[in-house]
Every structure is written in C-alpha cells, then in structure tokens.
Specification:
The protein has two helices and three strands, in the order H-E-H-E-E. It is an alpha+beta fold. Strands 1-3-2 form a three-stranded antiparallel sheet, covered by helices on one side. Strand 2 and strand 3 form a beta hairpin. The termini are far apart.
Length: 73
C-alpha cells in the first residue's frame, strides 16, 4: 500500500457576473486575460444586459493580454 499522502490545491472559483457587478457605474477596470478570458467577460456582460441589471463596454482592442471593462449603468 502506498503511504504517501496526496495533497490537492483548493480551487478558487471566480464569479464573472459578481466581478462585473462590483464595478461602480462610470468606472473602468483592466482585467488580465489569464484571470478571466475576454469571451467569458463578453458573455457575462451580455447576460447582465439582457437581465437589465447592468450595461458594460468590453474591449480588448489595443491591449495585450488585458481586457478593458467600463460599466455604463
């Protein structure tokens, strides 16, 4: 029998909608692409807009490995 103890690294789940809603209206933040992918940010922003909870401008144009997110309302 193997007496070694396997350890696991706990997973920290990032809630993209909660992250976006934490941005104050009129505020612009930069989110690294390695933390949250641009496509995931766009999808969450679209779902929040459809639910009429918030509205965002999401752009990656002109940035390397970052996404700029501006909350409108």
């Amino acid at each position: 029998m193997n007496n070694q103890v396997n350890t696991i690294k706990p997973v920290t789940k990032i809630s993209i909608p909660a992250t976006l809603l934490a941005i104050k209206p009129g505020e612009t933040v930069m989110i690294p692409s390695r933390t949250i992918k641009t496509g995931s940010i766009r999808a969450a922003a679209s779902r929040l807009k459809r639910a009429k909870k918030a509205q965002f401008i999401v752009t990656e144009q002109g940035f390397v490995n970052e996404t700029q997110v501006t909350r409108l309302k």
